Amino acid sequence: MINTIYIEEEIAEHPRTLDIIKRFPNATKIDCKRYGEIFNRKSQNFRLQKKKPALILAKKHKSLVLPTPKQYGLGAEHNYYFSHMLNCLYDCRYCFLQGMFQSAHYVLFINYEDFIVDMQKLLNQHGEQSVHFFSGYDCDSLALDPVTNFTEEFLPFFENNSKALLELRTKSTQIRNILKRDPIQNCIIAFSFTPNKIASSLEHKTPNVEKRIRAIIDLQQAGWLIGLRFDPLIYTKEYKKEYAELFTHLFSSIDSNLIHSVSLGSFRLPKAYFRKVEKLYSDEKLFSSPMEEENNNIGYPAEIRENMLDFCKDTILEHIATDKFFPCHDSNQTITS
Amino acid sequence: MIHLFCALSCEAEPIIQHFNLSKIKEFDLFRLYRSEDKNISLAITGVGKMNAAAAVTYHHACLSTFSADIWLNIGVAGHSSLPIGEACLINKITDNQFGTTWYPQILFDIDCTNAPLITHDAVSYQYQDSLFDMEASGFYQMALRLGTAELIHCLKIVSDNQQHSVENIKTDYVKKLISKNNMKIVQLLNLLKPLAKELSSINTAPKYYQTLIEEYHLTKTERIQLLRLLNQWSVRFPNDDIMYFVRNVKNGKSLHKKITTKLIESDFIIYD
Prior knowledge:
The complex is a heterodimer of chains A (about 325) and B (about 270).
Chain A: E1 4-8, H1 15-22, E2 28-32, H2 36-39, H3 46-49, E3 55-58, E4 65-67, E5 78-82, E6 85-86, E7 91-92, H4 97-100, E8 106-109, H5 112-125, E9 131-135, H6 145-148, H7 150-159, E10 164-170, H8 176-179, E11 187-192, H9 196-202, E12 203-204, H10 209-221, E13 225-233, H11 239-253, E14 259-266, E15 268-270, H12 271-280, E16 292-294, E17 297-299, H13 302-316, E18 325-327
Parallel strand pairs in A: 1-2, 1-3, 3-8, 5-9, 9-10, 10-11, 11-13, 13-14, 14-18
Antiparallel strand pairs in A: 4-5, 6-8, 7-12, 15-17, 16-17
Helix pairs in contact in A: 11-13
Chain B: E1 2-6, H1 9-18, E2 22-23, E3 31-34, E4 40-44, H2 49-63, E5 70-78, E6 87-95, E7 101-102, E8 113-119, E9 131-133, H3 136-146, E10 152-160, H4 171-180, H5 182-203, H6 209-215, H7 220-236, H8 242-245, H9 252-265
Parallel strand pairs in B: 1-4, 1-5, 5-10, 6-8, 8-9
Antiparallel strand pairs in B: 2-3, 3-4, 6-7, 6-10
């Protein structure tokens, strides 16, 4: 799977680095000073690199935990996101990462302890108030979990801090590490969905809808809370039929009582990212549709967007209580997982 | 197109013969060679990174290269322990003078040693665990300005090591080392060609773009918009003739409006 591993000199002897390297005995190891030497260089082509991404093991020095964009959240006043990884195993054509990064390589920041220190500082800063932390903004939270041990290292922190809430956003079925643990009520495993036909066309290399539902059932049976994320909503001529079928199937397969939250948002990308992705995949049907520019974002024309959001909201609310529903009408880009 | 760069004539000769390249007489600052179909070219850069960088620039200026072209530096290099004649695809280039590093992106499986390389400013007799040469950093740095990282590579053949010193290297010996690796060069190029083809297909302007910008007076922004519209058209209506559709259009603004209207009026599609 991974043929090349770049390793920052500073963390070359970190136990987590050594552990990860052991898992790829045949990979070529190349040392580097900072991951940006590889990841941020110009003249790279994301589309070509996506054919064989390398793994870069690095240390994150600053901005480890950042405030989320406004209106992005699940009802708490204090919302932050963090990314232990950059880039994703999957290859979703609508993903903003293709427009944001020069490189398709996976960067794994192995200094988890520094992330946790920063989270603790934020908890201290906000006193008794609830603080939500979102993972899965710049990567899929679980797709590489068997290699990164991300959940094993981060979940104990949340187990001991009940006023902190963690959302792990994913399309992955890599839930073994989570199932090994006792469930905690302040961790939401949030699965992203699009209807089957759309997923097969746009969500390359991802587990199919059925497999994701199976993973949810297993997690619910073990007592974990689940989130459902319909972001991005993708427009097709048949979207009402396709989304209605997805919602019916999903809500009839899983336990609605163990759903923590449902959110949705229409497909949109910042203009610069959209233009870059459109060039990379000029043969992709999604980008050949007449999108519109609004507030420096490119997305569906307002009428289509609002109709789609209204329809999906109304249909979802047939299945869940209003207080579990969090529409995302903001102007920020579609998040990755 | 494929652009090959060698520092010395004795490195280039076996490649020139293998690919049946002919000297291009009109260019004489650096010796340039090209295949009859013009798909493969080669430059003899002379020794040193400055020469290598200058030769890349000259090559580009003389032969009009494209960002989806393949760029390959081929030559001999020293290493402390790798066996003589071993072909190595370089995965890290360090400029010894400035400490700058580059990481060629190897996106394919090739039966070939991957190794780091240090480019020195003078002949080095101090063997290390890295390969060392005198051109790669100059070549790579300049090629990166003109091409795409995934298509720019350095293939080095080990010519000397601690047991077999650089002082023993003669011209015929170098020729033999390169000749023996001709098939490795071909193998590498064959692995790079599909990547170049894919990149070229992304970069190529859609059909009739050139015809339309010659026919209509368009501003720079309008040309960018037209490019985008024609791309959308080719994805949405691959069987419809755009030239027939716009046959009565009188000016650039009407052209833009007519294509846009047709695209907006048609359904959004994600799959067939």
